[in-house]
Specification:
Radius of gyration of chain B: 13 Å
Largest interface: A-B, 28 and 24 residues
Largest sheet of chain B: 6 strands, mixed
Structural class of chain B: mainly beta
Helix content of chain A: under 10%
Order of helices and strands of chain A: EEEEEEEEEEE
Helix content of chain B: under 10%
Number of helices of chain B: 0
Number of strands of chain A: 11
Strand content of chain B: over 45%
Shape of chain A: globular
Largest sheet of chain A: 7 strands, mixed
Strand content of chain A: over 45%
Shape of chain B: globular
Order of helices and strands of chain B: EEEEEEEEEEE
Distance between the termini of chain A: 36 Å
Oligomer: heterodimer
Structural class of chain A: mainly beta
Distance between the termini of chain B: 41 Å
């Protein structure tokens, strides 16, 4: 089944403790992206990747890191999480970000930073 | 800076009604517009994608239109059903790899 898989689905942690949210897709998509969703603000793009080893900042990249060492994986890293990063996070992929292919989303990761 | 607005934020309708959801954007320089459905606890499911050169797309009971010059898109749902209850989001692609989302319309279809 074609899908985007995020782990973990839920995480409660404390300020400053490094964490990684994994994202994997099995559709051989070139483009992958991370979003956060907050009430009243909608989805905002954090980082995206056009292909292996090629990443760029979205609208809200502060406090996050990403890497794209393999085509299927695009982990989101919070080096020193803070309470303002408490949010619902989504990973998405599409065949090509520069074309007219739809984005496919994972089921989301709910992060709570205390 | 591109802004995407969806009004109303919430909508309740009786089953069987035809309804229209609205999406407006401030800059007509878009590559495409995509409508999504989001169910509680789940990710977004793509419903329809309209390229900037297109005026509408249809899938089953859904029809999406795009008017770039006025900065508007509508999602028409025919003969609504309780299973259509969800949050509907629109998103515009504003650059090769950048997307701007609206805040969504939460739809409830009453049986």
């Amino acid at each position: 089944e074609a899908q985007v898989t995020q782990n973990p689905r839920y995480l409660i942690t404390v300020t400053g403790k490094k964490l990684t949210v994994t994202c994997s897709q099995n559709m051989n998509h070139e483009y992958m992206s991370w979003y956060r969703q907050d009430p009243g603000l909608g989805l905002r793009q954090i980082y995206y990747s056009m292909n292996v080893e090629v990443t760029d900042k979205g609208d809200v990249p502060e406090g996050y890191k990403v890497s794209r060492k393999e085509k299927r994986n695009f982990p989101l890293i919070l080096e020193s999480p803070s309470p303002n990063q408490t949010s619902l996070y989504f990973c998405a992929s599409s065949l090509s970000g520069g074309g007219n292919q739809p984005q496919h989303f994972g089921d989301g990761t709910r992060l709570s930073i205390l | 800076k591109q802004e995407v607005t969806q009004i109303p934020a919430a909508l309740s309708v009786p089953e069987g009604e035809n309804l229209v959801l609205n999406c407006s954007f401030t800059d007509s320089a878009i590559y495409n517009l995509q409508w999504f459905r989001q169910d509680p606890g789940k990710g977004l499911t793509s419903l329809l994608l309209i390229q900037s050169s297109q005026r509408e797309q249809t899938s089953g009971r859904l029809n999406a239109s795009l008017d770039k010059s006025s900065g508007r898109s509508t999602l028409y749902i025919a003969a609504s059903q309780p299973g259509d209850s969800a949050t509907y989001l629109c998103a515009v692609r504003v650059a090769a790899y950048k997307y701007i989302f609206g805040t969504g319309t939460r739809l409830k279809v009453l049986a």
